[in-house]
Every structure is written in structure tokens, then in C-alpha cells.
Inverse folding.
């Protein structure tokens, strides 16, 4: 497209996935101290408030009109499931390993797109799937020391994220990016607000944690905004592989924040998942129009 600036787009996508990785670290810190639905209720409240402030003045009532409302709500609900699943996973597991498992989702979407959307997968794509699965097996191998409960929650997050991304592809044909983002934020807010009476903190939240809760909402929202802006500056084929830098950010920030360094086999697995995602993205991004609402990571 005329007027696009690929290097600016790459910079924006790298900044976006850095925001997502930071939000994963903050989520791990907060969910170790507070009920997961409480943390997510605050996050989605901030997210919804910012998105409405951005889009409502120009979009008006049209922002809430969708052609396939049922699927829009299913998509939003699937991201809420992914959010609570990754929050619970991060309670039990390190950041890097958790996010690497979650990044099975794009590979699952590539497989599901064959029967559901009629897309074709090149031999390189199937090789990427096998490489990614092998990498995850290295991460979750018996004797690796990871919590079975944490692995189960991470796999649930990957499954819910796959549904979310699949519906993002489908709905991008009929719905606006702004409507999808706002519906997702409002649905998440409604779901976690409903759970809030059963998950209120049993003590006063200290100022540092209030700042962390606020920061989590800001980081997640800023990540989405930067991600959307990146795709205005560069084509999907250029940007898609850089989404997987989030795995590197997550492992590095997890080490800095919590002192956890993956063991050599787990680190090899994370590298394999990263390379598999990049290979798959290089192949698939050239064949479809991107939807900026189809963000990577754990939601």
C-alpha cells in the first residue's frame, strides 16, 4: 500500500508484543496475590473505558451494531476464557513456559482453517506445526518440573485463544475492528464483574498493587492500540513473524522479575515454538488480509 512505512510498522509491532509480555509479568505478580477474576475485572474495566473514550466519539451508536452478534459474543467470551485460564496458569508456572504453550494457538488455527475456512497449508506450514508441537513437548516433558495443573490451564488458554483467532478471521469479513475490540472489552467486563462478588479481596489492596492493577489495564490496551497501528504501516507478511518475539520478551522478563530461567531443554522448546510460529506466519500472512483485532498472545 502507498504511504506504508515497514520499519515503523516493525517498531510498532515489537513495542506491542513488549507491552503484552509486560502485561503477562504483571498478571503473574497480581494473580499470586489476588483472586484472578478480581484482577481481570479491573483490567477489563480500564480496557473498556479507554476504548470507549477513543472510539465512541467518532463511532457513536454504529459502534454497537454488528451483523453476526452471536458469533461476536462467542468470540469475546472465548477471550475471557483465555484470560482467566492464563491467569490461573501463571499462578503455577513461569511466564516463558506458559506463553510458549499458549502460542500453540496460531498453529492450531492454521490447521483448523483448512476444513473450516477452506484455506490451504503449504508443506512449510505443516513442518512448522510439527516443529511447534515438538517444542511444546520439550517444555511439558515428564520430569521438567512444571505443574500439571498449570500446564492444563495453559492448554485451555491455547484452545480458547484458537477459537478467538479463528472467529477473528471469520468476523473480519463482516465486522469492523473497532466494534470487535469494544465488544470484547465490554463482554469481558460483564463476565468478570459478575464473578466479582464471589472473588473480592479479603484485605485492603496496597498502593503498589493498585498501581500494578492500573498498569495492567493500560499495558493491555496500549498493546492492542500499537498492534493495530502497526498494520497500518506495513503489510501482514512483513509483520507476522515479529509477533513471536513476545516469547523472547516473556522468557527474559520472567527471568528479570522472578529469577526463573528455563532449563536447557525447556529453553530449546521455547526457541522451537518461536521458530515454528515465524515459519507459519511467513507462509500464512501472504495469503490473507490481516485483522488488527486478531491480536497474538494470551489476551
Amino acid at each position: 500500500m502507498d504511504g506504508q512505512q515497514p520499519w515503523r510498522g516493525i517498531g510498532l509491532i515489537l513495542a506491542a508484543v513488549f507491552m503484552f509480555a509486560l502485561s503477562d509479568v504483571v498478571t503473574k505478580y497480581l494473580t499470586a496475590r489476588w483472586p484472578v477474576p478480581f484482577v481481570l475485572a479491573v483490567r477489563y474495566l480500564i480496557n473498556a473505558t479507554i476504548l470507549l473514550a477513543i472510539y465512541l466519539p467518532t463511532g457513536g451508536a454504529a459502534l454497537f451494531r454488528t451483523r453476526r452478534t452471536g458469533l461476536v459474543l462467542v468470540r469475546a467470551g472465548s477471550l475471557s476464557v483465555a484470560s482467566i485460564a492464563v491467569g490461573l496458569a501463571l499462578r503455577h508456572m513461569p511466564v516463558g513456559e506458559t506463553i510458549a504453550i499458549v502460542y500453540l494457538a496460531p498453529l492450531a488455527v492454521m490447521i483448523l482453517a483448512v476444513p473450516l475456512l477452506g484455506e490451504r497449508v503449504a508443506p512449510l506450514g505443516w513442518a512448522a506445526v510439527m516443529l511447534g508441537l515438538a517444542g511444546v513437548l520439550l517444555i511439558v516433558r515428564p520430569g521438567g518440573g512444571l505443574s500439571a495443573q498449570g500446564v492444563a490451564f495453559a492448554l485451555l488458554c491455547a484452545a480458547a485463544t484458537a477459537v478467538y483467532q479463528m472467529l477473528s478471521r471469520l468476523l473480519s469479513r463482516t465486522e469492523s475492528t473497532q466494534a470487535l475490540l469494544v465488544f470484547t472489552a465490554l463482554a469481558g467486563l460483564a463476565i468478570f464483574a459478575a464473578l466479582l462478588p464471589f472473588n473480592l479481596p479479603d484485605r485492603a489492596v496496597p498502593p503498589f498493587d493498585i498501581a500494578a492493577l492500573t498498569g495492567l489495564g493500560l499495558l493491555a490496551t496500549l498493546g492492542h492500540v500499537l498492534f493495530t497501528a502497526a498494520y497500518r504501516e506495513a503489510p501482514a507478511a512483513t509483520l507476522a513473524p515479529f509477533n513471536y518475539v513476545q516469547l523472547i520478551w516473556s522468557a527474559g522478563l520472567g527471568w528479570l522479575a522472578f529469577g526463573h530461567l528455563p532449563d536447557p531443554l525447556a529453553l530449546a522448546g521455547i526457541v522451537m515454538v518461536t521458530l515454528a510460529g515465524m515459519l507459519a506466519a511467513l507462509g500464512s500472512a501472504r495469503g490473507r488480509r490481516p485483522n488488527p483485532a486478531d491480536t497474538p498472545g494470551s489476551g
